[in-house]
Amino acid sequence: MIIGVPKEIKNNENRVALTPAGVTAFSRKGHPVYVQKTAGHGSGFSDEAYAEAGAVMLNTIEEVYAIAEMIIKVKEPIASEYPLIRENQLLFTYFHFASSEELTHAMIAQKAICLAYETVEKDDRSLPLLVPMSEVAGRMSIQEGAKYLEKPMGGRGVLLGGVAGVKPGEVLVLGGGIVGTQAAKMAAGLGAYVTIMDISLPRLRYLDDVMPANVDTLMSNEYNIRQQIQTADLIIGGVLIPGAKAPSLITRDMLKLMRPGTVMVDVAIDQGGCFETSKATTHQEPTYVVDEIVHYCVANMPGAVPYTSTLALTNATLPYALQLADLGWQAACIKNEELRKGLNIVQGTIVYKGVSEAFGLPFQEVTTVLETAEV
């Protein structure tokens, strides 16, 4: 299979979908790899390193899309890329369709094979290709939140760890999954008081056992959230419904319960956000203020630490990408249920229920579409 790696062109997205080590792995199996020049520069990988690993370097993104049977990316295609995508071309990347009706209709129209990192799922319901970036984003949420709590950045002027004689800041983490766990660990390490909320009692019991003494657990419901936001300095939104739109846990009316300068970091923004007032921002303009509350809603947070993020992501994606290349997307998805769950749109048909429900669009079972799909 011919593999294509275009340069990411989303605002301040510095990650790359394949490292030179990944190129070597494909080349040894007989799969030619075409990489757009400078695609790896943001992550610290030179064109020479790719060429030495066996890649053919192409000058433009158009050339990469034109030659590749499988496009491997990090972020979803943006509008300028839509016309480049060919019918039956396999795209393996983060899509987060439920947060973008425009992207969903565009991929339906292009009749591509859209296999989303974020919905590849193991038997234990874990999401192996979302986990590494959730780890990065969870840890970054505290790093960024602490920065925007500074007064010159619009925050309350609170040092999360406090100092002798002064209480530390309070951090509220909504969601006890990968993002929430990593955020709580980072905040606790800084010395903050942390409350982590979830709707699963077994998850809360686990977190209560493993977290340090300055982390409390609390059942997530509207009453408890309204109580906690009144004293929180930093609020992290890390809830996830795989492949579907995130629920709005903090509504516009709740903002008036918070103290001016409180910071909210919405890590769920890729899936539409878990705060009613959330809207996607970029690393160039990461925050905005609503009712004196600072909102940080960058949709590609790990893109700010591309060296770490690229290595973490490609460690997870490469085995799946090799299987797709070796067997072809159809045979690989029939054989591997984890990959099959990653299929969101196949040749113009939505095959992931969360996407169809987000926009009220027609849905077909993936097994039915796989049997009749053109190879």
UniProtKB/TrEMBL annotation:
- What GO cellular-component annotations does this UniProt entry give? plasma membrane
Fetch the InterPro entries from UniProt: Ala_DH (IPR008141), Ala_DH/PNT_CS2 (IPR008143), AlaDH/PNT_N (IPR007886), AlaDH/PNT_NAD(H)-bd (IPR007698), NAD(P)-bd_dom_sf (IPR036291)
Substrates-to-products reaction catalysed: L-alanine + NAD(+) + H2O = pyruvate + NH4(+) + NADH + H(+)
Q: List residues of the Alanine dehydrogenase/pyridine nucleotide transhydrogenase NAD(H)-binding domain.
A: 149-297
Q: What is its EC number?
A: 1.4.1.1
Which residues does the Swiss-Prot or TrEMBL record annotate as the active site? H96, D270
User: Is the Nucleotide-binding keyword given for this protein?
Assistant: yes
Where does this protein hold substrate? R15, K75
Enzymatic class? oxidoreductase
Q: Where is the Alanine dehydrogenase/pyridine nucleotide transhydrogenase N-terminal domain?
A: 4-137
Q: Which residues bind NAD(+)?
A: S134, D198, R203, S220, V239, L240, V267, A268, I269, D270, V298, A299, N300, M301
Q: According to its UniProt record, what is one Pfam family this protein matches?
A: AlaDh_PNT_C
Keywords of this entry: NAD, Nucleotide-binding, Oxidoreductase
Instruction: Locate the transmembrane regions by residue number.
Output: none
One Gene Ontology term of the biological-process aspect is: L-alanine catabolic process
Q: GO molecular function, one example?
A: alanine dehydrogenase activity
Q: Which NCBIfam families match?
A: alaDH
Q: Which family does it belong to?
A: Belongs to the AlaDH/PNT family.
According to UniProt, the name of this protein is Alanine dehydrogenase
